[in-house]
Design goal:
With about 400 residues, the chain is an alpha/beta fold. The chain has 2 domains: about 120 residues, Response regulator (Rossmann fold, 3-Layer(aba) Sandwich); about 260 residues, P-loop containing nucleotide triphosphate hydrolases (Rossmann fold). Helix content is about 40%, strand content about 15%. It is built from 17 helices and 13 strands. The strands form 2 sheets. The chain has an 8-stranded mixed beta sheet, sandwiched between helices. It has a 5-stranded parallel beta sheet with strand order 2-1-3-4-5. Helix 4 links the parallel strand 4 and strand 5. It starts with 9 loop residues before the first strand and ends in a 7-residue tail after the last helix.
């Protein structure tokens, strides 16, 4: 039996008894010369003991998770395969019991039918890459957005930054990018992107040690662009306090499994906030163009510097900036004078565009290509990306926990 990938081509073996799913898979993978597709017709209970996976980069098993015989056959199949190749399960039924059983079998990922083509491709590419990368975790470039005041537009800027980073390479292979909504009580990232939030911290809080890459995959949501999102369902009537070890473990796991990570921070300071900020390559404080907001931003810059010492230097982005002739409104020179060297730049105001993007669950560029908000954010963020790549990356968040001062 093969112990690893045998060539530069990706060999995908699919076992299915569903003609419609087979047709869809052939349409998705059949057009690529880099994919060696093998489809076996039948069920895992009928063919699991004899299915050949020689040279496979990834195996996809289409099964009925509510059928005890099929789940038992899948368990035997996983035992026979051992560590290679990774297996993805496709099923029409899903609940916590099924997810737990699949995790115990060490299934690399699972998808719930009907499956979008982009989700199928991303899942196969992701698990194949995770097994061929030599097991060496990466350290992400981390961009953190912290609000100076409520309603400053942090979530909009975090979403657009994640999209920019996802598409920053200029190559067909996009850098893996994850957007993490750390506002567990009033988070809006999933709503902005029209996604179902899947993070359940209460499920992992009793045993943070069981949170691994496979469990993380279950709790990730994926946008059609390929952007991974970590977000919890809103609980507006609850004050959600979690063990900082749980949150830090989650963030450390994310930071070692993606090329870029963007954190959308809540305004409230929690016991784990210092750890997140210390682990960041770039820390942006987002303010509005008002005197009170700028005062709060300046105070927050001073507080962050005092708490983090030699940590990342906070920079202030002034959102929704408008400078009109013959107006008494704040000018850019006023911002520079107030914020000093902490002033990063401004983002122009286009409320109508942002509102439409939010209502449609789309990135700004898909609503209006080449818009002025994205153009200005690109200058701030992609310039910061080049600068970050020139310096040493921070150590993973768990290793920095000892330097954190609890609030």
């Amino acid at each position: 039996m093969s112990s690893g990938p045998q060539s530069n081509r990706t060999r995908v073996v699919i076992l299915t008894a569903d003609p419609a799913f087979e047709k869809s898979a052939r349409a998705i993978f059949g057009v690529s010369s880099a994919i060696d597709l093998v489809i076996e017709q039948g069920s895992i209970s009928g063919q699991g003991d004899t299915l050949s996976v020689e040279g496979a980069s990834v195996v996809l098993v289409d099964l009925d998770a509510g059928n005890d015989a099929e789940m038992a056959a899948l368990s035997r199949f996983m035992t026979r395969l051992g560590e290679w190749p990774p297996v993805i399960a496709a099923t029409q039924t899903f609940d916590e019991g099924v997810a737990r059983t699949l995790l115990q079998m060490r299934i690399a990922d699972f998808l719930v039918k009907p499956i979008k083509p982009v989700d199928l491709v991303r899942a196969c590419a992701r698990v194949a890459k995770s097994r061929t990368g030599g097991g060496q975790p990466t350290e992400a470039q981390i961009y953190t957005f912290l609000p100076a005041v409520g309603g400053a537009g942090v979530t909009t800027l975090a979403v657009q930054t994640a999209m920019l980073l996802l598409n920053s390479s200029g190559r067909r292979s996009k850098p893996t990018t994850c957007l993490v909504d750390l506002n567990f009580q009033h988070g809006a990232v999933a709503d902005y992107l029209d996604l179902e939030p899947r993070l359940n911290l209460a499920e992992i809080e009793p045993r943070p040690d069981r949170l691994d890459r496979q469990l993380l995959e279950i709790m990730l949501s994926y946008h059609a662009s390929g952007l991974a999102v970590v977000a919890a369902p809103n609980r507006p009537a609850e004050m959600r306090l979690f063990d900082p070890d749980v949150v830090t473990r989650l963030l450390d796991l994310v930071s070692t499994n993606f090329d870029y990570v963007v954190f959308d921070m809540p305004r409230t300071w929690f016991s784990w906030t210092d750890s997140v900020l210390l682990g960041s390559n770039k820390l942006f404080i987002v303010s509005e163009t008002t005197v009170p907001a700028l005062r709060h931003a300046k105070q927050l810059v001073a507080a962050v510097k005092e708490r983090l010492g030699e940590g990342p230097k906070p920079q202030v982005i002034v959102n929704r900036f408008e400078q009109r002739m013959f107006s008494a409104s704040l000018r850019k020179t006023d911002l520079e004078q107030t914020l000093g060297d902490a002033f990063a730049g401004t983002i122009p105001n286009d409320y109508a565009l942002v509102r439409e993007a939010i209502d449609r669950g789309l990135p700004l560029d898909e609503v209006k290509a080449g818009n002025k908000i994205t153009a200005q954010l690109k200058k701030l963020i992609l310039g910061a990306t080049a600068e970050s790549n020139a310096v040493a990356k921070p150590v993973p968040l768990l290793k920095k926990l000892s330097f954190s001062a609890a609030s």
